[in-house]
Amino acid sequence: MMRSPDVTVYCGEVDGRVVGTATLTTLPNVAYVDCSPAAVIEAVVVAHDHRRRGIATEIMRRALADARAAGCDKVQVVSHKRHATDGAHRLYTGLRFVPEAEGFRLYLRRSPPAAGGLSPS
């Protein structure tokens, strides 16, 4: 994986096996006069057999704490619409995220498969 000071990848482990991930990216928000940082969280993924055990919640809490420590004014989380009924959106609203924006995506290359057999949450 390429190293970047503005990107943090979180892993949740059970018995030495990675069963959950998330990625936090911080960037200056040029819409603010002081360019204070904002953050984006994506690739929140938990293995099917480990869901509903609090793994994603703990990963998200750590990512949010790191975003606060970095001085971020806001955090956006990216979640596909297909996850509206499988618990992922409940996870985010339970962490006080508000569904207030519509997102758009353009794949410049073929969409890659999920890593390690994990499915996005």
Characterization of the model:
It contains 2 helices and 4 strands. With 121 residues, the protein is of the alpha+beta class. The protein has a single domain, classed as Gcn5-related N-acetyltransferase (GNAT) (Aminopeptidase, 3-Layer(aba) Sandwich). A 4-stranded mixed sheet has the order 1-2-3-4, covered by helices on one side. A hairpin with a 2-residue loop joins strand 1 and strand 2. The chain is globular and about 45 Å long. The two termini are 22 Å apart.
Sum this structure up briefly.
With 121 residues, the chain is an alpha+beta fold. Helices cover 18% and strands 27% of the residues.
Task: Using brief descriptors, characterize the structure shown.
alpha+beta; Aminopeptidase; 4-stranded mixed sheet; 27% strand; globular
SSE topology sketch:
Blueprint (H helix, E strand, L loop, with lengths): L6 E8 L2 E12 L8 E10 L8 H15 L5 E3 L10 H7 L27
Parallel strand pairs: 3-4
Antiparallel strand pairs: 1-2, 2-3
